[in-house]
Amino acid sequence: MKIAVLSGKGGTGKTTVTSNFAVNIKNSLSLDSDVEEPNLHIFMDMKNSASEPVHTLYPSIDKELCNLCGKCGDFCNYNAIIPAKNQVIIFSESCHDCGGCKLVCPNGAITYKKREIGKIFKGRSKYNTELHYGLLNIGEMSGVKIIDQLKKYSNLDEKTIFIDSPPGTSCATVAAVEDVDYAIIVSEPTPFGVSDMKMVVEMLREMKTPFGLIINKAGLGDGEIYNYCEDENIEILGEIPFDKKIAELYADGKIFSDTLPEYQNFFSDIYKKIVEGRRSL
Amino acid sequence: MKISICSKKEGLDSLVDERFGRAENFTIIDMDTMVIETIKNSAKNEASGAGGEAVKLISKYNVDTAVVPHLGPKAEKAMEAFEIKTVSQEDYKTVGEILEAYKSGKLKEIIKKKGLTRL
Fold it and tell me: What domains appear along chain A, each with residue ranges and CATH number?
C-alpha cells in the first residue's frame, strides 16, 4: 500500500508526519520525493546509505545524415533542439527526454546520449526502518525522473510505503502522488495553509486519489479549514496541536512520537483507519 | 541587409522592448530599401527556450543584425548558429532612436563573453 503525504504549502509538516508514520508502522518503507530539498533522511538519521545515479537522455545529431529539414525543432515543445544554418543546436538541460525528435526525424540522424541529473540514496534509519530519497542536481529543471525511479524501485505490494511529497501542485507533486492508494494532506489552519490546500484537493480529485486531512499546528489561525472541510466533505483524520514541546523536538531534529509516546497511537490509529477504509471499498 | 529591433508596438515611435526572447514584437528594417515591417514574436510564451526560438523566427526573415538588450546564454548560442550579428540597444528608448544610432554607427557589437554559461 502506497500513501503519499502532501500539503500544497511548504512547512506545514509533511516530513514531520511522514517520519512519525515511518517509525510507528512496522516494516514500512519511506521515500522522500522532495528531490529539490530532501530532508527526511536528516529526521530519520539515515546510516550507511548507498547511492546510484539517475540519468536522462538528450538528442545527439549525426551531421552526415541530417539535412537540416527542421522537423525536430518544430516538434520540440521546449526548444531543446533547434536546427540552424549549418548545424543543429541542442540545449540538453531543456530536453524532457520525450523521444519525439527521433520519431519525427525522416533521416535517422538522431540518437540519444545520457547525462546524470541526480542520485537516489538508499539506507536504513536510526529507527531501523528502510528509507530512500532522491536528490536533484543543482540547476536541473525537473525531478520527475528521479521520483519515478524512486517509486519504481519500491514497487513492493506487501510493504507499506510512505511518500513524502514535494510542496505545490506541479509535475513533481503529480509524479509523487501518481498511482498511490491514498493521500494524506497535511495542512495548518491558517489562511495560507487553507489556500494552498484547496489546490491540492483539486489536484487529488482530478487524479481520483482518495484522501484525508491531518491538521498540524491545530489551535493556530482561524476556523476556515473546518468550514472548508465540512463544505467539501473532507475527512479530518486527526489533529496535531500547536504545542511547544513538539516544536522543540522538531527543532532538535527529533521525531516527536518517539519522545512523546502518547502520540504513537495517534499515527497507528490513522493508519488502521486508512487500511480499513480501503478494505471496505 | 536587414536589422531587427525588439519593440513593444509598431512603427518608429514604438518603445523598445527590454527583453529579447520574450519581446512583444520585432521590428525588421531593410536598410537598403528602408521598408519597415513589424512581426509578432511567436516565441514570447514558450515554456522554455524562448530566446532560441526567437532567433529562429528572425532568421526566417533574413535578419543579418539583431539589435538586442541583454541576451541569455541560449539566445547567444543560437545567434551564433544562425550567423546573426548582435549589437547592443544601449539605453535608447524608441525604435526610431535606435535606427538613427545604428545608422551613425553608435551601437556596439556584442562580443561573446567568456564566462559561466551552462550549455
Answer: 2-46+125-279 (3.40.50.300), 55-116 (3.30.70.20)
CATH code, domain carrying B22: 3.30.420.130
Please provide the DSSP assignment of A58-116 as one string: EEEE-TTT-----HHHHH-TT--EEE-SSSEEE-GGG-----HHHHH-TT--EEEEEEE
Q: Which residues of chain B make contact with A79, given a CB cutoff of 8 A?
A: 43, 46, 48-50, 52-53, 74
Nearest chain B residue to A95 by CA: give it. Answer: B48
Task: Give the model confidence (pLDDT) of B27-80 as tens digits.
Answer: 999 999 999 999 999 999 998 899 999 999 999 999 999 999 989 989 999 999
pTM: 0.81
Q: Choose the closest CB to A84 out of B47, B78, B119.
A: B78
Per the domain annotation, does B26 fall within a domain? yes
What CA–CA distance (Å, rounded) separates A216 from A198?
16
Which residues in chain A are contacts of B41 at CB distance < 8 A?
A: none
Residue B80 lies in a domain: yes
- Tally C-beta pairs within 8 A across A and B: 51
Number of structural domains (chain B) is 1
Q: Tell me whether residues B56 and A82 touch, CB distance under 8 A.
A: yes
Determine whether the interchain pair B52/A85 forms a contact, defined as Cβ–Cβ distance below 8 Å. no
Cα–Cα nearest to A5, from A240, A233, A194, A162: A162
* Residue from A82, A98, A141, A170 whose CB has the most chain B CBs within 10 Å, to mutate: A82
Segments forming the whole domain that contains residue B86: 2-103
The ipTM (two decimal places) reads: 0.85
